[in-house]
Write a structure and sequence with these properties.
The chain is of the alpha+beta class. 19% of the residues lie in helices and 35% in strands.
Length: 201
């Protein structure tokens, strides 16, 4: 487990870290009520997973986004509206009424040599090598990693990723300094679900 602070800020999203193919994708959205979610992309029931990994009170106001290309589901706040699905099917963009942007996405798990990353630490080291002057802080634990930086527009970006056998899935929030506390409340249950969910491919 590592936690390091950097003074310089600038950055680019995790979405640029992987080369992606472009198959067709089907879409799925369903309400989460009392910690229950609809079937995930491969048809398995997510309700037990949500109840196990996230407290009921944390998921009462969340919906479920399903991605068929990378075979995963992710919860997101019900105050966010889905804007669009990416053309290549790797994820979707969401926004709320205050302009906070959320991206939920996946990519192939492969490094520059075509080898898969085995854990969050290895993947984070790769991101640090690419953006050593841009990261404010970061965290790794097992197959999970997350980091925060400021983009070229001066907005904060929090990105979290889960390393799986064949894919890397995650989410990113883009927000202002004044919206930091609101986003922290969204991050906590989403981070818990992503970090502890073992049903991803």
């Amino acid at each position: 487990m590592r936690y390091i602070k950097f003074g310089l800020v600038f950055g680019c999203l995790l979405l640029s870290a992987c080369e992606l193919n472009k198959p067709n994708v089907s879409k799925q959205e369903s309400a989460v009520q009392s910690s229950e979610m609809d079937d995930n992309a491969d048809g398995s029931d997510l309700s037990n997973t949500v109840q196990k990994n996230v407290r009921k009170s944390d998921t009462n106001n969340f919906l479920s986004y399903g991605n068929s290309r990378f075979d995963f589901n992710m919860i997101y706040p019900d105050s966010f509206t889905k804007e669009q699905e990416s053309d290549d099917g790797d994820g979707a963009t969401f926004t709320d009424k205050d302009g906070i942007k959320l991206l939920i996405y996946g990519c192939n798990n492969c490094d520059e040599d075509g080898e898969p990353y085995s854990n969050g630490k290895d993947y984070m080291n790769y991101l640090i090598k690419l953006n050593s002057k841009s990261i404010i802080d970061y965290y790794t634990d097992g197959k999970y990693c997350s980091y925060t930086y400021k983009n070229k527009d001066g907005n904060l970006v929090f990105s979290a990723s889960k390393i799986n056998d064949s894919s890397i899935v995650g989410f990113s929030f883009i927000y202002t300094e004044q919206q930091k506390n609101d986003v922290k409340n969204y991050i906590k249950p989403m981070k818990s679900y992503l970090e502890n969910n073992d049903t991803f491919s």
